[in-house]
Amino acid sequence: MESRYAFLPGGGPELQIAGAEGCFLISAQGARILDASAGAIVSNIGHGREEVVSAAARAMAQNTYVLPTFETPERLRLVQRLQDRWLPGGIRRCLFTCGGSESVDMAIRIARQHFVSKGEPQRFRVIGRALSYHGTTLSGLDAGGHEKRRRGFAPYFSGSPKLPACYPLRCAHCRDTCNLHCADALEDALQQADPATVAAVILEPVGGSTAGALDPPREYLPRVAEICRRHGALLIADEVMCGFGRTGARFAVEHFAVVPDILVSGKGLASGYLPMGGVFVSDFVVEPIAAQGDEVMFYTFSAHPAACAAADKVLEIMEREELVQRAAKQGEALRARLQHAFADHPHVAEIRGRGMLQALELVRDRSTLAPFDASLRLTSRVVAAGLANGAFFYPGGSGAAQDVICLGPPLVISDDELDLLVAVLRKSVDEVLNSHDMEGGRK
Asked: Are 82 and 318 in contact (CB under 8 A)?
């Protein structure tokens, strides 16, 4: 029976979630489903934290809606916490949105406005990478490299070149280790576009779900940042998925000792308790805009007081419970369990990621990296088997990385719950691969 909630016919299983607590979703039938991906890699502090709900309710009782340009106590507290305890040095300016897609769109507009105000209106291009995702706005789709989600929208795109992903598993230029050809390719992309027309380069410091937790070597991001500086382009770090502790650092850029010009966030900022995203910017970027008396237009529901209160309380909990450090520790524990369960699996090409953002890439032939036939819809079937077995895994994959299972549970997950996660994942993968109609796909 098709769900009445589905927008498209056949648009998904009729699964109703009636509640959630800790690391578990609870179905309308009372089944407990381990949330092995924190929804869409969102619920960093877990579900059902009453103090977050209470903070948001108090804010809403005081202010239901306030124009985004006005101060409220909730907005001031959140900005102060971010500036004092979370943002990388040199980044102080904060704007808020309702989520990651809006944040990317705003970041691109800020980059463009920076150069218009500076007297360089020819700079409009934003160079992104293959196997990337920057949200569902047209500007985000243009910058991103998710083939399926870009399909059909080409008439709206700028035609800016794409960098290769930092993807050593399938890189023709890499042997045992990354040789940074993918970073140096930025020089060629800039020349192709004309450096004088490029406003920004955007990337996910640690990849999200498009190719599944691509984690570059330490030298990669500094090399990209240096090339951007040399050509006068801004660097936008999209940390919608990997930010706010997910990778075992406050922001993933900290692993690489790089401070971007613009830092984009969403998801973990409010841990899903209310729609919330953020764009954090250096003074260098905003100075010409302010000097010219220009503006950066807000969204109607930007910085909603209740969302700001929820985000502030989420970050307070993250600090109090040391969840950034816990993400690093439990990330190592998750990786060890995955290696034990899948290291010799004939259809697991790679286990990769950082902290509590991990992924498995599934292939038909591990030695050649040949994929399964796309018509088999392997990833979707593994996710469905996982739900039947009591866990939700996040589907990923695009282009060469066709079949990817992403793992990003709440940072509060226990060791026993990690054991359950890996056991259900192994069972679900094997059930699908051993099913009768998969036999031809393995040949």
From this structure: no
